[in-house]
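Exam revision sheet. Question 4 asks you to relate a sequence to its structure. Input first:
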Amino acid sequence: MSKYNKLWSVFVLCFISQFASAQLTDIARLEYSFIPKSNSEDQYTRLRALFNYPIKTKEDCYLIVGAEYNRVILNLEDDYPFDNTLLETINIIDLNIGYTFKANEKWRLGFKLNPRIASTLTEKITSDDIFINGGLFAIIDRTKSESLKRPYRLILGLTYNATTGVPFPLPFVSYYRRVNEDWSFALGIPKSNVKHFIDAKHSVQAFIGLDGYFAHLQRPQMVLGKQIEDISLSVAVGGLGYEYTFSKYLVGYLYTGYTLRLNNALRDENRDEVFKLDDVNAFYLRTGFKVKI
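Answer key, structure tokens:
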């Protein structure tokens, strides 16, 4: 694996694992994702559910507790030089613990801790299945300001993710602005988009985003003379999305597009790539419902 490819995978896995899985404004989410392998019967499917509950501790201060479950189903129908039944299902379980408070009239500060189990769960859970992720964030949120002609939100932070193998925090930046009644844009990772509001209920968008996972294999196998310990998927995708607002808090969505870069791989104990399951770009679909603040 080249130095460039390994660095790209590190950043992708860090940001999608740390931040994409639980957006700041999501109280609950149910989601289905699907990527078929090009020129193959193989398929990647993910079922996702999350719930976050804010508890007001004092004025403008909140403790946030929640959980998230991802069930990744790998339908591997091609011929492989290993027993693919041992990695058909990947389970990713997160506990979300966060705290946020108003530092001053402009800035809100917060931190987030995410103990995680990411594993095939075919055996008893060990330390290899457990990862600790977290982040520190500073937020300016003027999206509800009636005095601003172009409301905006800026998030700056540092994130740490145990699955990347990088022993230090990495920076995070996200910027959102409502240009006018009809348009908004967001720049950052894991998603950037340009959104058009058709009316109060319907909106469409063009987006570029990241997706994927990293997990431990509880039953290691020898592949190409090396023992595989982990599995990872890193995806960069571009496409179009549609959102329907049922109420102030409930939104349904559908995103479809094509992967711009895809790497699904088995890795050894050093997290070096041993066997590539898929690297051919393909169709992408993600749909679901979310309850937001």
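Marking note for examiners. Residues 1-22 have pLDDT under 50 and may be disordered.
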